[in-house]
C-alpha cells in the first residue's frame, strides 16, 4: 500500500452503494450453489470494506485537525448516510439468514458472525434514523469543543494533554498551577458539555424506547455485543473491585504520599510517583519509533514484521497539536488490512504507553486480518481487544531501558501501580453511566452529585485541594468515553484482569504466556467473550475469587 498521507480520499457514492446492495439482494436468492452464494457474499463485503475505508480515512483526518472544514463536512455526510445504509443492509441480511446455504455460511464464517447480524438487525430501524444522525452530530460537537480548548501556560500554548505534562513536575507549585489551569479549561466549557450530554441522554433513551428496550442500558449492551453477561454481572464485578482493588490502591497512594514527603496527597500529586521526578522517555518522535522498531524485532518475528509495515506506510499520527482531538486510538483501513495509530505525545511516559498499548491493538488487527476471511473479524469486542493492548504493555517491559535508560525500573513500577490504580476509576465511570441512564438524569447538578458520591466509594483517597468545580463533581467530564462510547470503559477493567493474569504467567513461563497471547490475537473476533478467554487460558473475571487471586499475584510483584 502507499503511505497514509498518499491515500486519495473520495467521498463514497452512497447511492451507488445502495444500488449494489439491491443487486446483491436480487442475486442472492437465485444462487444455484453455496459457492455462488459465497462469492456474492464476499463481493458485498468487499464493497462494504471500501466504503468503510473511505469513511475511516475521513474520520482520521478529521480527528488530526478538527478545524479542517472539508473533513468535518465529510464526516457529517457519512454520519447522515450510514443509518440509511444500515437499514438497507438489514433487508439484505434478512435474505442471508433465510438462505438455504446458511449452515455452510456458519461453518465457513462462524456462528458468532451471524449472531452479530441478527443483533444489528434488532438495532436498525428507520424510526430511529434521525436520532442516530443527531447522536453523531452531538458527538462531533463534543470532540470539537474539547479539541479547541487551549491555555497559555508558562509562555506555551497548551491543550489538556500539554497541561498533564506539567502535572508531573517535581515543583509542587507548578503542579498545582497546571492542575488549576487544567480544571479551568474544563470548567470553561462545562456549560456546553453539559448541554451536549443532556441531549445525548435524551436521544439515546428515545432510541431505546422506540426499539422496545427496557432502557438504554439494555440497548447499549447489545450495541457493544455483550451476549455473555448482563448489567447484574458487571455490578458483581464492580463489587469485587470495591472490596479487593480499592484497599490495595489506598495503600499504594499512602506509600506515594510518604515517598513524596507531603502531609496530604492532592489530585495534582497523584501523577508524580517519585520526588526526584518520574521516568521520562528520551528522544524525538522519530527516535522513539526507531527504538520501538528495535524492541518489536527482538520481541518476535511477527511483531517485527508488523511494525515494519506500520513504519513503511506511515500509519501513525502521534504528536499533539492545536485542533487535534484528544486521546488516542487505533483504527483499521479494511482495504489495506492496515491498522492506524492516533495519539497525542506529551513528553511523558504515556508516549511509550502509546507505542505499546495502541500497538497491541494494531498487532492483533494486523495478524487476525491476514488469517480470518472477513475484515469485521479482525477485531473482537472491547473487553477482549483491550487484553491485546494491555498485555503488550507488559510483554515489552524487558525493553524499557531503550526508552528510559537507568530509570527503566522506575517506569516499570509506576506503570504496574497505575495498572491497578485506574481500575477503581473505571468502575466509577461505569456505575456513573448506569445511574445516569437508569434515571435519565439530564440535570447537571444531579449528575455532579452522583459523581461525587461514587468518587468517595471508588476513589476515597482523591483530594482536589478545594477546587470548587472538581470538589462538586465536575471530574466526570474529562472522560471522553462517557460522551462518545457509552458503557465502553468497564471493558478496560475486565481486560486488565486478563492482562495482569498473563503478566503473572510471564514471570513463570514467558514463552507459554506469549503463545497464549498470540493464540488470542489470531482468533480475532471469530468467537465469543468466554470462548476467547479459554483460547488464552484466562480466568472468568466475573467468577468469585478471580479478582482476589490476580491481586494477590500483583501485590507481591509490586
From TrEMBL:
Cofactor comment text: Binds 1 zinc ion.
Keywords: Hydrolase, Metal-binding, Metalloprotease, Protease, Zinc
The protein's required cofactors: Zn(2+)
Biological processes, Gene Ontology terms: proteolysis
Residue ranges occupied by any Peptidase M3A/M3B catalytic domain in the UniProt entry: 166-547
Tree of life domain: Bacteria
GO molecular function: metal ion binding; metalloendopeptidase activity
Listed InterPro entries: Pept_M3A_M3B_dom, Pept_M3B_oligopep-rel
Database matches in NCBIfam families: M3_not_pepF (TIGR02289)
Family: Belongs to the peptidase M3 family.
Protein name per UniProt: M3 family oligoendopeptidase
Native source organism of the sequence: Murimonas intestini
